[in-house]
Structure formats: structure tokens, C-alpha cells
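Re: export button greyed out
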Amino acid sequence: MSANVEAAAGGGWSRLWAIAPLALLLAIVLAFSAYGESITALLGRPPPPADQFDVRRVQFHPGEIAVKVTNPQPDELTIASVTVDDAIVAFTLDGPRQLGRLRSSTIRIPFDWIPDEPIRVAITSSTGIETVEEIAAAVETPEATARGALGYALVGVLVGLLPVALGLLWLPALRRTAPQWLAAFMALTAGLLAFLGVEALSEALQLQAGLPTGLGGAGIVLLGVATSWLTLTAISRGFSTGSAGAPRAPSGVALATLVAIGIGLHNLGEGLAIGSSFALGELALGTFLIVGFMVHNVSEGLGIAAPIADGQAAASRLRLAALVAIAGAPTIVGAWIGGYLTNDLLGVLFFAAAAGAALEVVFEVGRYVARRAPGGLSSPFVLGGFIAGVAVMYITGVLAG
Amino acid sequence: MPKNQLTRRGLIVGAVPLVAAGPLVKLALDGPAEAADGSLQSHVHDHAVSGHAAMLGESVPAVGGARDLDGLLYPPPAKPYEPGRVSEHTLVATDVEIEIAPGVFFPAWTYNGTVPGPIIRATEGDTLRVVFRNYGSHAHTIHFHGIHPANMDGVFEVVESGGEFTYEFEARPAGFHPYHCHATPLKKHIHKGLYGAMIIDPREPRPPAHELVMVMNGYDTDGDGGNNFYTVNGRSFYYAKYPITVKRSELVRLYLANLTEFDLVNSFHLHGDFFRYQPTGTGDAWEYTDTVMQCQGQRGVLEIEFANIGLFMFHAHQSEFAELGWMGYFNVVE
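Workaround output, generated via the alternate export path:
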């Protein structure tokens, strides 16, 4: 009783006490910055900085190579000398010559580079350490033109929008399918999404591994995954409590929308990968590759159709078109972003978000199937459908590889 | 998009070397205008937007001012033979961080603060006395090429940090000889910068000439066992920024030595003229050529009378070395 009174009376003070750890931390940080060297000196002499630049992007313009570099280390890093194919070259800088932590500059080198030939750009620091960037083939970096944007958009339509729309055309046929087979198709949807989730997660981790250590570790992938997973959970709760009183797992069009969002986020990453690989000259957008992506993505449309058919839900054409747009249009946006703004950090976040979304939707579909499917999650139709979903994605993925 | 499509922009870029070529030709015909600081006022500079334009004049990435390397380029005068003379020199080993290319610093071990070390000159028959003080952080020696007693060879009498040793022997044979540290690990002690060259003049003096010394070297700045920069006399592209002025028809005598570590050979190629080459600066066998090759430790004497005025490039004929700093110009004037 008296303790409660005390707590109430001290409410203001106890809130102030919450600041105390921060204030003390600040004081210790200041003291350490001032006198800390005498402590670290006890440990011996620190090693010299690595003095390696992080080469963010190499662009080829007519008569010029532009190299964006970042300093990934705590110590300052100076751009002293630049070579192209082991020859010292003259250059100018957009930005400082001496880079502070995580600061960037763009090195502009007047150079008659030879299209389609490998080229090697190296930046030497003031301590003589060389950072070498090998480019497999010099290809002119596309400018942000209306033509280019249209090109990326059309590629996005071909590999994203169109296949999803085609897959959705299975809806009338699905509506006439027996319940156990519908459960199999729902499980197939879950299989597709699980595959996409794992693929996106691996892509995110790979890209993250290539980031400079200064930009954080694998935790950034978790940040992306958790954010999109929780956002999708919130959206699905919003769907399920919208009309009906009691909260229940989403089904029908609502579940199809979740599936479309999951696929859409994945396709954003896919578009990003296509756009940036093309812009960096690492990908030839040949007929085979585009056809591969189309076949790969047709099954995504099937994944959206299955919950609508299973829920016996009515869906207007406009609704269906919206679902196609949610799932397929992000490919176009991704291709634009990838084509013009190559940024690995952004790539990591996109792929992590795609992974989180896809896996969350697998979870939602799983809950739905568990409740609805004849025989539950362990029915052979469900198990077979899931495995079939993963297998279909793997096999068609080989085409796009 | 079809490859190699001819675009308007492509044409403009393609024309750049042509635009640059005009002033270059003019420059070669007129001879360059020399600025107050000795660097060439490059007419090319404004047009040097293409990576294929010649590296010339003030836009060249080279360290320092016009006369910085005079002490390493112009040897002290030869002295006529005089029996019983003692030629005394002092070499001090110090650890110095030197700037070898703009903004690129190399933690060097040096004789007298420079890489290469000072030019030593004596006449055959002189008693050469070199006082060596080691102010460096490691044990060093001086190993002279030449004819001398075993205990003066710079191999066994290792001079500890803070120590001192006096090398004394007769200067012979006449020629151009390198000297370098012979402490182990040898590769490290040499490539860190402990080397230089020594002229031993013959008793019968060579004809008077405009004399120059060039020591070819390289720097491995990132420790991968390969050179990142190549130079003569220690700074990459220095003589491209500050061409060496000589007179037409005047006898130019160039003492050339190779102290490049890691690479098997280095070379010297002169544009627009030929020279006579006397290997090691000894004997009577002169070769008439425009390109010579030297392995590490090899050296020789070149004699040239330039036939024409203008700018004449010289460089290693290994293109890679040339483009990593081992390139310069003679500015031949009337």
C-alpha cells in the first residue's frame, strides 16, 4: 500500500531515472574518447587500416568511366591514384578525395574503353593499397531515357504481369475441381511461395555478404524479413476482422490478396535483379531467359486463383485485374529501380522483405488448409501439392537460371 | 541494340584523339613552351579528355617541383686522375616516408633520405672511403659492385641500428656500378629503397658531355610481391611532367642502372633517335640501338647526340611499366 503511494508520488522522478543510464553512458563515452587510448595501448599497437575501397558502381559512358567508391572503414581513406588495366590515368572527382567513414566519391576517368571487352579498374589509397574491380565486359550504362524506361517496363510486363494473368485464367477450371484437389492446389500455392521465400532469403543473405562490414551484418536481413512478415500479419488480421465479427483466418479473395502481395514483393526483387544485372552488363536479356521467367511465373497466377476457387468466392474482373497488378506490376517497378539505381543495400532490404512476405503467406495458407482441407494438413493431396509446388518452381526456375 | 552501332556521340568521342593530335603535332614542331616552374605548358591539356592522349605537361600525375630530383639526375663533375687521392663520402640509412606518386606514400628505407640513394663518383685508382651510419630501425649494410676485399663487401659486416662502419677500398674497375644493402631478407631490404649507383671514371677521362644518371626502380606498395609503380630516380612520371632539357648535337651521356625488384628485367627505349650503349660502362663493345634491356643489377652507359629538336619520349619498353610511371621526355633545343 505504502509502496504504491510512493511509486505514484515518485512517478515523475522514476521517469527521469530512465534517462540516467543514457546520461551515464554519454559521460563514460566522453571520458573514454578522451582517455581511452591509454587503455587500448595496454593491448599493444593496433594493426593499420585495411585501406580497401568499396566499389559501389562502375559506369561506362562514351569516353568516360565513372567509378563510385565508398570508404567502409572507420579510418579516413584517400583516393590517391587510379589505374585502368594497369595504367595510371588522369581523373577528376565528384566529391572529396579524402573520404570519411561511409562517405562516397565518384571518380571520373576520361577513357576510350572498348565495348564488350573485360576491363580492370583499380584505386590506390595513400598507403599504396590497391582495390581492384574487374568488369567482365564493358557495356555502355543505360541513361535514364523514356525509351529505356519503356524497355524495362515491357520486360516487366512480359516476365511479371503477363504470366500472372495467364495463370489466373485457370480460375474457372479450378472452380469445378473436387475439394481434395482444390486442397492440393492450395498446398501447391504454399509450395510455390515457400520456394520463392527461400530463394529471396538466400538472395538477401548473398547480397548482404557482399556489403561492406560497416553497413551492418546479417541482422539487416532479419529487419527486412520481420518488418514484412509483421506488416502482412497486420494486413491479414485487418481482412479477417473487417466484415465478420469473430476474428478468423482470411480466406477467399482476402487470402488471394495476401498471396498476391507475397508474390508481388518477390517480383519486385526479381525485377530489381533483372534490371541491375542488365545495367551492370552481367546479364544478356535473351529470348530464352525471358521465356524462362514467363514459364516460371505462370504458376504464380495459379497460386492466386486457388484460394478464390477454394473459398467459392465471387470475384469481379476488376478484382482479378487488381490482383494481377499487385502480383505482377512490381516487376516493372523493380526493373526500373534496378536499372537506374543499383544499390546493394536496397537490394538486401527488398529481397528480405520478399522473403518475409512469402513465408508469412505460406503460414496463412497453411492455417487455411489445415482448417478447410479434407483430411487436414497430412492428407496426401496436401503433402503432394506442396511438394509439387516446390518442384514446379525449381524445374521452371532452371529455365530462368 | 546492335553492337558497334555508329552513333553521333560515338563519332564525337572517336574524334577526340584527332582533336588532341593537332596541338601535339604543333607542339612537336615548335618545341614546348616552358613555364616558370619548369613544367611544360601543355597545349594538350585542355583536350586531354581521352585516355589515349599523351601524358605530358602539368596534367601529368607526378610529385613535386621542377628541380627536386636534380641531385639524382646530374652527377657531380668527374675529377682527373690523381694518384693517392681519397674520395670520401658519407651515407646515412634512415627510415623515411616518401611520396612516389601524387598522394601515394611509401614507407621507405633510404640512403641519405632519397630513393635511389645519392650518386657516388670517384676516379679509378682513388681510395674510396664511404662512412656508413645506420640511423634506420633495422640492421643494414652497403654492398658495392666492383673489385674489393671480402671484408669490404657489405655481406658479413652487418651494421646494427645506431651503428657505424667505414668501407674503404680502391675504386675499380672504371664503369657504372650499383650499390645496395645486402642484409637479409635481401628482397625486402632492396625493394624498400636501399640502393643507388656509383660512377667510376676511367683514368683516361671520357669526352666532355652533358651527363645524366637514371636509376630504374619499382615500388610494391601493397605488399603482394609485384610493383604498383615504376620510376626512374624515384618518382613516377616525374620527367613526363618536367622534361629533361638537352641541346641538339651536344653529346649526352646517360648512366643507366636497373635496381627494379620483383620483375625479371627493365628496359630503356628512346624515341626518334639512336644511341651507343656500353654495357656496365666497361670495355670497347658499344651497341648502336634505341632499346636496351637490363636485368636487376645490370647497368650501362648510353651516349646520344640528338639529331632533331623537339620532345622525345623515353620509357621502359614494357608497356605496363611505362604506363605505371616509367616514362619521360627529353626536350631537345637548339
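The longest helix of chain B spans residues 8-30. The button fix ships in the next patch.
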